[in-house]
C-alpha cells in the first residue's frame, strides 16, 4: 500500500502494555450504561430513549478493536457473524479475541479456555461495586478496586470542587440549594454576558445529565419544574462558554508513573452531544504544551489520592482562546481508549483520522453486508480515502429496525476526506438518491 505523509499525531502510547502485563490474560467487559444508575435525584426533565439504550449496549463491539488474541470479550449481545468476520479481515487473520456471551451475575466460565500460567485480569469499562464483586467471585484480578472512589471521580460536582481547590481554570458556575439561589445564579450568568447556561446533575456522559438553558423563557419553565419537585436540593449551574475547541486527554495513572496516552479533539453538537473524535488534531505548540502540562499535573494529583487506571478528561478552549482544562473527568475507559491501538497503526499510513456515527431506522432488517454495500455506494471510498465500520448495532422495536453505525474515516487530502464525512452525515436508508447526489 502507498504510504502518505503523516500529520502530527498526539497518540503517544498504546494502553495495552500498560493495562495488561505479558503475564496476564484479559477479560474485557463494556458496562456502558451503568453510570446512569448513580443519578438518583431527578430535579429536571430527562428524556429516556429505551431503543437508544439498547443500541448503546451493543457499542461493546468496540472491544474487538483493542482486545488481543487469547483475551476474552464478555458481550451482552451477539454481534452479526458478518461483522465479526469483517473485523478480523481488517485487523488480520487470527487476531481476534474469544467472544463469550455473559451477564454480570454469571459465574460459569468453564467454556472459556486460557493458559493456566496466565493471570486472569478483568478490564471493565467502568468499575462499580457490582463489577468488583463479580470479579472477586470469578477469581479475576482488577488493576484498581476502589469502586467508591471511581464513583466520586465520575461525579461532576466532586470534580468541579476538586479542580477549583487545585487551581485549575474553571468556567463560571455556581452550586445552588434553593430555587431562589438558582434564579440569582442564572441572573449573574446573564449579567456576565452569557446567553446560555447548562444545568448539571452529578452523573451522566455524552450529553446525559445535562440540560441546556438557551433563553429566559426556558429557564422559567425549568425553575417551575424544579419547584414542583423540591424546595431544597443541590444543583450545579454553569455558564455555557462559546467553544472554539473541545479537547480530550487520555491518561493512564500508575502507582509511580503518569502516562499521557493521547490528545484528541471531540466533535460536539451545539447542545453538548458527542458525535465523533478527531484523532490527529492540529494544535498550536503553545496550547499543546500548556495542555500537556495541566493534564500531567491532574494525573499526579489523582495519583496522590491513590487512584490508578485510565481516565478521559474533557476540556475546552473558548472563543477568547482561554483553556479550561478540566470540564469533566471520566474515571473509566472511553470509546477513544478502545480505538487507540488500531488508530495508531492507521496514522502511520493516513494523514487524517476521525470517527462519526449515525442513527437510522427502516421497516426491514439490513444485514451488515447490505449496510456496507449502501455505505460504499454513498461514500465512494478509494485507496487514499476509506472508512472502517467499528460498531454495527441493530435493534428491532415496534416493527422497525433501528441502527447505530460507527465509522472511522481515514484519508490523505483534507477536502476529499471532509467530503466523505459530510456524505456520511447525510446518509439515510431511504431515499439514497439524495445522498449520492443523483
Automatic annotation (TrEMBL):
What are the ATP-grasp domain coordinates in residue numbering?
160-361
Gene3D superfamilies this protein is in?
ATP-grasp fold, A domain, ATP-grasp fold, B domain
- For this UniProt record, give its keywords in alphabetical order, as a comma-separated list: ATP-binding, Nucleotide-binding
One example of the protein's molecular function in GO is: ATP binding
* Protein's UniProt keywords contain rRNA-binding: no
Residues that span the membrane, as ranges:
none
Write down the PROSITE patterns for this protein, in alphabetical order.
Answer: ATP_GRASP
- ATP-binding found in the keyword field: yes
- Output the superkingdom of the source species: Bacteria
User: By its UniProt entry, which InterPro entries does this protein fall under?
Assistant: ATP-grasp, ATP-grasp_PylC-type, ATP_grasp_subdomain_1
Protein name (record): ATP-grasp domain-containing protein
* Organism encoding this protein: Paenibacillus agilis
Amino acid at each position: 500500500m502507498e504510504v502518505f505523509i503523516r500529520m502530527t499525531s498526539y497518540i503517544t502510547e498504546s494502553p495495552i502494555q500498560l493495562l495488561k502485563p505479558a503475564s496476564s490474560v484479559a477479560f474485557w467487559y463494556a458496562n456502558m450504561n451503568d453510570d446512569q444508575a448513580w443519578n438518583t435525584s431527578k430535579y429536571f426533565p430527562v428524556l429516556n430513549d429505551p431503543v437508544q439504550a439498547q443500541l448503546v449496549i451493543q457499542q461493546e463491539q468496540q472491544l474487538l478493536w483493542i482486545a488481543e488474541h487469547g483475551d476474552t470479550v464478555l458481550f451482552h449481545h451477539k454481534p452479526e457473524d458478518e461483522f465479526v468476520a469483517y473485523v478480523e479481515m481488517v485487523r488480520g487473520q487470527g487476531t481476534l479475541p474469544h467472544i463469550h456471551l455473559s451477564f454480570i451475575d454469571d459465574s460459569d466460565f468453564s467454556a472459556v479456555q486460557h493458559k493456566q500460567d496466565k493471570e486472569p485480569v478483568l478490564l471493565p469499562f467502568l468499575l462499580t461495586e457490582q463489577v468488583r464483586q463479580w470479579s472477586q467471585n470469578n477469581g479475576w484480578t482488577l488493576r484498581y478496586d476502589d469502586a467508591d472512589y471511581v464513583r466520586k471521580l465520575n461525579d461532576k460536582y466532586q470534580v468541579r470542587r476538586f479542580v477549583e481547590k487545585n487551581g485549575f481554570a474553571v468556567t463560571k458556575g455556581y452550586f445552588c440549594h434553593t430555587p431562589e439561589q438558582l434564579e440569582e445564579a442564572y441572573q449573574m450568568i446573564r449579567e456576565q454576558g452569557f446567553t446560555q447556561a447548562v444545568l448539571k446533575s452529578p452523573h451522566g456522559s455524552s450529553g446525559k445529565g445535562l440540560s441546556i438553558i438557551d433563553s429566559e423563557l426556558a429557564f422559567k419553565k425549568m425553575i417551575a419544574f424544579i419547584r414542583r419537585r423540591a424546595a431544597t436540593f443541590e444543583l450545579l449551574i454553569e455558564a455555557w462558554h462559546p467553544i472554539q475547541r473541545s479537547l480530550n486527554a487520555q491518561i493512564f495513572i500508575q502507582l509511580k508513573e503518569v502516562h499521557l496516552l493521547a490528545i484528541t479533539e471531540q466533535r460536539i453538537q451545539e447542545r453538548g452531544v458527542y458525535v465523533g473524535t478527531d484523532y490527529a488534531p492540529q494544535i498550536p505548540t503553545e496550547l499543546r504544551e500548556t495542555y500537556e502540562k495541566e493534564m500531567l499535573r491532574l494525573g499526579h494529583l489523582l495519583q496522590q489520592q491513590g487512584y490508578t487506571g485510565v481516565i478521559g478528561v474533557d476540556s475546552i478552549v473558548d472563543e477568547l482562546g482561554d483553556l479550561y482544562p478540566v470540564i469533566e473527568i471520566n474515571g473509566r475507559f472511553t470509546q477513544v481508549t478502545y480505538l487507540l491501538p488500531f488508530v495508531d497503526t492507521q496514522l502511520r499510513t493516513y494523514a487524517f483520522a476521525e470517527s462519526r456515527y449515525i442513527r437510522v431506522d427502516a421497516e426491514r432488517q439490513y444485514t451488515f453486508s447490505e449496510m456496507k454495500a449502501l455505505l460504499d455506494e454513498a461514500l465512494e471510498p478509494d485507496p487514499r480515502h476509506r472508512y472502517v465500520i467499528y460498531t454495527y448495532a441493530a435493534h428491532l422495536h415496534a416493527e422497525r429496525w433501528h441502527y447505530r453505525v460507527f465509522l472511522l474515516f481515514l484519508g490523505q487530502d483534507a477536502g476529499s476526506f471532509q467530503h466523505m464525512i459530510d456524505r456520511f452525515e447525510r446518509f439515510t436508508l431511504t431515499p439514497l438518491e439524495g445522498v449520492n447526489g443523483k
